[in-house]
Backbone:
C-alpha cells in the first residue's frame, strides 16, 4: 500500500492526521497497554513515550506524563503539503482565525514551521508541513487460502503477535458536532463522509484517505474516544482481542462490523476509559472521488452486527460528570 500522493494544486486541505498527543497519570501503565496492543513504544527525552508501528517509520502519537490528573487529549497535528502551508496562513488571516501560542511541550521538536490555532472544544490544532501518512489506497486485505486439501484456518500454534500496520483515524468527542464540522470542513478542508444527524460525523481528506480521517461524536465536551489501527485480516482483529485479554485488558466491544466505514472492529478499553481499535477492511475514499455522504439512522451509526454496545462505550472520561 502506498502512503505517498501527489497533491492537487487546486485543493486546500490537510492530508493526514500527522500526530496525536495526550497525557496520562502513569507512563508505565501506558507502555504496558500499547506494547501489548502491538505498537512499537519508544522512549523520548523528558520522559515522553512515542507510538510507532513495526511496519511504518512514522511516529503516530506521543504520550506525556501528567501525575495526578486524568487522561487528556493535549493537541492534534495535521500534515499539509509544502505549497499549502502559506495558503493556510492566508486563509486563517482572511477568516479571522487567530494563531495561538503552542501548548507546553509542543515546541520541543525541531520539525520546521507550524501554524497553531484553537480548534473545537478548545483543542489546540497544529498544521505543519509533512509527508502524507494517511493511506493512499485500501489497506492490506488478507483472507484464508482458497479451499483445498486440509483446513484453511491458521493453526493457533503458529499464530504470531498482532502488530497493527498504521493509524487509520481518530474519533474525538465534541460538545457540538455541527459546529465542529464547520471548523474541520470550512477551515481545514476535510469533507463529510457520513453522519447521523448531529450525533456523529465522519470526515475524510479530499487528498485520499480511509472513510474517515477523523470522526466527531456528541458529548458534553471535548476528548479522545479512540484511536483506530489497521490490521490486515478479520483473524487479526479477533486475535488482537485475545491478545489483549491475555494481557489483562478484558473490557471492550466487538467483534463486530460497522455500517459507516464498513470495517470489522474490536475496541479495547484502555486504563483511562478511552479505546484503541483493531480495524480491518475499512472503506477507502480516493483523491478526487465524490463520496455519497448520507445522513443515517442512529441505529446504523455504530454497527451492522456485533454484541450490544456497552454502556460505558459512549462515556467521555475527559469531562467531569455532574454529581
Residues:
Amino acid at each position: 500500500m502506498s502512503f505517498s500522493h501527489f497533491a492537487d494544486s487546486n485543493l486546500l486541505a490537510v492530508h493526514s492526521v500527522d500526530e496525536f498527543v495526550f497525557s496520562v497519570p502513569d507512563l508505565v501503565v501506558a507502555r504496558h497497554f500499547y506494547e501489548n496492543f502491538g505498537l512499537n513504544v519508544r522512549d523520548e527525552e523528558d520522559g515522553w513515550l512515542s507510538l510507532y508501528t513495526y511496519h511504518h517509520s512514522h511516529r503516530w502519537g506521543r504520550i506525556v506524563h501528567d501525575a495526578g490528573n486524568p487522561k487528556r487529549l493535549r493537541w492534534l497535528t495535521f500534515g499539509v503539503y509544502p505549497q499549502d502551508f502559506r495558503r493556510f496562513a492566508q486563509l486563517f488571516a482572511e477568516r479571522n482565525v487567530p494563531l495561538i501560542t503552542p501548548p507546553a511541550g509542543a515546541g520541543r521538536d525541531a520539525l520546521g514551521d507550524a501554524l497553531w490555532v484553537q480548534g473545537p472544544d478548545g483543542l489546540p490544532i497544529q498544521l505543519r508541513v509533512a509527508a502524507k501518512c494517511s493511506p493512499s489506497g485500501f489497506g492490506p486485505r488478507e483472507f484464508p487460502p482458497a479451499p483445498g486439501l486440509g483446513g484453511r484456518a491458521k493453526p493457533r500454534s503458529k499464530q504470531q503477535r498482532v502488530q497493527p500496520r498504521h493509524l487509520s483515524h481518530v474519533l474525538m468527542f465534541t460538545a457540538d458536532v455541527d459546529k465542529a464540522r464547520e471548523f474541520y470542513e470550512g477551515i481545514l478542508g476535510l469533507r463529510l463522509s457520513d453522519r447521523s444527524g448531529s450525533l456523529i460525523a465522519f470526515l475524510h481528506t479530499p487528498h485520499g484517505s480511509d472513510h474517515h480521517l477523523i470522526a466527531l461524536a456528541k458529548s458534553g465536551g471535548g476528548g479522545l474516544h479512540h484511536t483506530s489501527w489497521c490490521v490486515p485480516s478479520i483473524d487479526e482483529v479477533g486475535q488482537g482481542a485475545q491478545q489483549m485479554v491475555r494481557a489483562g485488558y478484558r473490557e471492550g466491544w466487538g467483534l463486530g462490523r460497522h455500517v459507516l466505514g464498513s470495517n470489522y472492529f474490536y475496541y479495547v478499553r484502555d486504563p483511562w476509559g478511552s479505546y484503541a481499535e483493531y480495524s480491518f477492511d475499512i472503506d477507502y475514499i480516493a483523491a478526487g472521488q465524490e463520496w455519497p455522504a448520507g445522513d443515517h439512522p442512529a441505529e446504523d451509526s455504530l454497527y451492522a452486527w456485533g454484541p450490544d454496545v456497552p454502556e460505558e462505550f459512549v462515556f467521555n472520561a475527559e469531562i467531569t460528570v455532574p454529581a
